[in-house]
Amino acid sequence: xxxxxxxxxxxxxxxxxxxxxxxxxxxxxxxxxxxxxxxxxxxxxxxxxxxxxxxxxxxxxxxxxxxxxxxxxxxxxxxxxxxxxxxxxxxxxxxxxxxxxxxxxxxxxxxxxxxxxxxxxxxxxxxxxxxxxxxxxxxxxxxxxxxxxxxxxxxxxxxxxxxxxxxxxxxxxxxxxxxxxxxxxxxxxxxxxxxxxxxxxxxxxxxxxxxxxxxxxxxxxxxxxxxxxxxxxxxxxxxxxxxxxxxxxxxxxxxxxxxxxxxxxxxxxxxxxxxxxxxxxxxxxxxxxxxxxxxxxxxxxxxxxxxxxxxxxxxxxxxxxxxxxxxxxxxxxxxxxxxxxxxxxxxxxxxxxxxxxxxxxxxxxxxxxxxxxxxxxxxxxxxxxxxxxxxxxxxxxxxxxxxxxxxxxxxxxxxxxxxxxxxxxxxxxxxxxxxxxxxxxxxxxxxxxxxxxxxxxxxxxxx
Length: 463
Hints:
four-stranded mixed beta sheet, alpha/beta, 463 residues, Aspartate Aminotransferase, domain 2
C-alpha cells in the first residue's frame, strides 16, 4: 500500500498568496471584498499567544481573539501537547456504543467549577448548546415558550436565531421558531408579564450582552432568577462568550450571585483548537430528557464527545487555573477600563466605558462642537455606526491592533482580548486608543478623510 504524504505546512506556504482567489471562487466572495476595502487583507501567517503575525512578519495585538475563542491565546503549548498526546495514544475514539473516559473527566471538572449543577451535555458549538437548551427546557417543563432579551445574540442556526434579536441576521430566513418572545433587557416588569402566563419553559439571557457589551442593572439577573423560580420557568445563562474567566470570574453570573438552571459554555472551552460546547444543568432537568433506556440517545451529536475536543477542554481548564488567567482578566480589565474612562473628559466623541474583566465596551456618540457634529451627522446619514470604523481601521493600520465594532450599526467598539495579555499589552492598547481617538477630533484630518472614503463606499453599496 502506498502511503499518502501530506505536508499541510508546505501546502499552506505554497498556496497562501492565492487565499483571496480561492475564497472568491469557492467560498465567500463578499468577505474578500470587505477585507480588501478596509485594508485588513494582510495575510496573517501565524499566531502566538495574544499576537498575530502577517506576511511581512509584522506583529499585531489581537483584541478580537476569534470572537472569544482564543481566551488562552493562540497555540498554547499545554493545549497543543494535550492534543498531540491524544493522537499519539491512538484511542478508540467515537465508538458510540461505548463510554468516553475523557468526556467523563471533562464533565467532572466543569461541574467542579459550577457545583450547584450536576450534569453535562456536550455539543460541537455554542449554537448547538442553545438548540439543546431549547429542547431540554421544553422537554422538562412541558411548556412551549422561550423568552429572550432584545439585542440578544444566541447563534445563527434556526432555534438560536429565533432568540437572536438582530434583523440583519434574521432577515430573509423566516418564519422562525414559534413561541419565542423578546423582552427589553433589564426590564423585570416585562419579564414578569411574560412569565405570568405560565407557558414559558425558559428565560435565556447573556449576563453581559455580547452585541454592544450591554450591562445588566444590579437587580436584573437576581430578580430574573427569582421570577423564574416563582413561575416554574427555567433560567438559562448563555455564558458562551462571558464564561471561562472572561469577566474576571469563572462565570459572569457569579458577579451577581445567581445560580442558573442551565449554563451554556463554548468558545474558550475549545482552547482555540477543537470546537466544543457544553450545557451544564440540574439532574432533575436532565433526568426528564433521558428518562428511560429507550431514550438514552434522544438527543445527541455525532462528534460532540470526540477525544480531541474533550482533551482541549481539559487542558484549557488546567491552563486557566495554573496560569491564574481569571485573576489576570480581572486585574487587566480593571486597568484598561480605568485608563479608558480617564479619557472621557478629554474627548467629546467618547461617551462611555463599560464591561467586566476583559470584556470591555468603548462607546462613542454625537459631539457638541459644531464642526465635529456636522461630520458625525454626515457619516450617520450615510451608514449608522460608521464612525467606529474611523477608530478600528487606524488602530489596525497604524497601531497593529485588531478589534471590532460590537454589532451591526453599533457605536461601541468591543475589546475581547486573550486572557494572557500583559501589562505591556495594556500600555500598547491605552496609547493607541488615546492617539486614534485624539486624531478623530481633528477636522479636517486623516481620520475624516478615511471617513469620506468609507461614506462613499456605503453610499455606492446602498445605491
